[in-house]
Design goal:
The chain has 372 residues and is α+β, with helices and mostly antiparallel strands. The protein has two domains: 8-14 and 144-241, 3-Layer(aba) Sandwich (D-Maltodextrin-Binding Protein, domain 2), CATH 3.40.190; 17-143 and 245-360, D-Maltodextrin-Binding Protein, domain 2 (3-Layer(aba) Sandwich), CATH 3.40.190. It has helices spanning 17-24, 79-85, 107-114, 124-128, 174-184, 203-209, 219-228, 238-241, 254-259, 261-280, 282-293, 297-309, 321-333, 345-348, 351-360; strands spanning 8-10, 45-46, 62-68, 94-100, 120-121, 133-140, 146-149, 163-165, 194-197, 214-217, 233-237, 248-253. Helix 5 links the parallel strand 8 and strand 9. It is globular, with a radius of gyration of 20 Å. It starts with 7 loop residues before the first strand and ends in a 12-residue tail after the last helix.
């Protein structure tokens, strides 16, 4: 569905699609010379942030697919483009193909990870329900979005009966989950509203056109929304509502880690370098972000300033046990993870691989107040 097509309204129903997906999804065999097999359906390839030549002589360039969770990507999702555009992948003899998915919890994203073909976003519920994978890098530990609402919504209680976004996967998608958290503050449930399932590109147009009354928007889209339609406003910053929630971690299939651990470690190291460069080199990072997101430079700059000031991007591995444990417990409380299938921190996070990647970039660092 495009941003212009009519949305489909859904009432909340039980979440069971992930278990079905994982039950039918087996790792794909490696291609020639151990190359990752292609995930189906094949996502769109991004060319923004084209790679420079490596600084060192490489016997061969190791190919890898890196997924981004939104189409088109938001500013927070651009570190892989920065890693490619500033040469961090190339300098480690990595040729990265960046592909996009309709949400980090979408079937196509999880299938690509499960098949061992792509390094992409994965969350605790997927691993608890059987995805044989581990998180390897916490791209953005803190939530970047605000819950943006129409002019007549003054409090969370005013959302009753309204149309809220379930972009990027419908029921169980990130937008659906965040709406549920906002509704809980007013003792409302998902049955008290209507959810609109749509493409992620439809979030901003849906709110601006009046098709939606509430949606979790990234900073650049908040900036654009309030320009396009005066009266739209932030109901709550999600990082204030859920300060311990772990937002976005990249993961890889256990099969991929076992098959090519050095590659996965080096990809992680390059991504850590990219996040650090974002904090330190605004002038080089923002043009890559603008090209990747196709958003106006002023909106990208607004988002960049918000994300760096609030330490949304990680500086190190991004993992803090307390934050991960809280997020797992929150998923159990909400019924996204069965209590008897609660994963441990080590079952979710490949701690050793992260430590190896961190050592490869010179060890832990702190930039301003940011140090996760």
């Amino acid at each position: 569905m495009t941003a212009k097509s009519a949305p489909t309204v859904h009432r909340m129903f039980g979440v069971g699609m992930l278990a079905l997906l994982l039950a039918t999804c087996a790792p794909a065999p490696a291609g020639p010379a151990g190359a990752p097999a292609e995930a189906k359906p094949s996502p769109q390839v991004f060319t923004a942030g084209a790679a420079p030549a490596p600084k060192q002589a490489c016997a061969q360039m190791r190919k890898v697919r890196i997924g981004v969770s939104v189409t088109p990507p938001n500013v927070v999702h651009t570190p892989p483009f920065v890693a490619r555009g500033l040469g961090f992948f190339a300098d480690r003899c990595i040729e990265a193909e960046i592909v996009e998915f309709e949400g980090g919890l979408s079937a196509s994203n999880l299938t690509a990870v499960a098949q061992g073909s792509t390094i992409a976003s994965i969350a605790a519920p997927a691993i608890a329900q059987g995805l044989k994978a581990h998180q390897i890098w916490g791209m953005a530990p803190r939530l970047p979005q605000a819950y943006e609402v129409s002019a007549d919504v003054k409090t969370a209680a005013d959302l009753k009966g309204k149309r809220l976004s379930a972009a990027g996967g419908g029921v169980g998608s990130f937008n659906w989950v965040m709406a549920r958290e906002v509704l809980k503050t007013a003792a409302l449930t998902v049955d008290d509203v209507q959810f609109v399932s749509q493409a992620t590109a439809g979030r901003l147009p849906g709110l601006a056109s009046g098709q939606l009354d509430g949606v979790a928007l990234h900073p650049e889209d908040v900036f654009l929304a309030e320009q396009q339609k005066p009266g739209l406003h932030i109901l709550v910053q999600l990082s204030d509502l859920l300060p311990k929630y772990f937002y976005n971690a990249y993961g890889a299939a256990d099969e991929l880690i076992a098959r090519d651990r050095d590659l996965v470690r080096d990809v992680t190291a390059a991504l850590i370098e990219a996040n650090r460069a974002i904090y330190k080199d605004r002038d080089r990072a923002i043009p890559i972000m603008a090209e990747a997101t196709k958003k106006p430079p002023e909106a990208v700059s607004y988002a960049y300033d918000y994300l760096t000031k609030n330490c949304v991007w990680s500086v190190n591995t991004g993992f803090v046990r307390e934050r991960t444990d809280w997020t797992i417990d929150n998923a159990i409380e909400n019924g996204d993870i069965q209590a008897d299938k609660k994963p441990t921190y080590e079952q979710l996070v490949d701690v050793k691989l992260g430590e190896e990647a961190l050592a490869a970039v010179g060890g832990p660092a702190k930039i301003g107040n940011c140090g996760e």
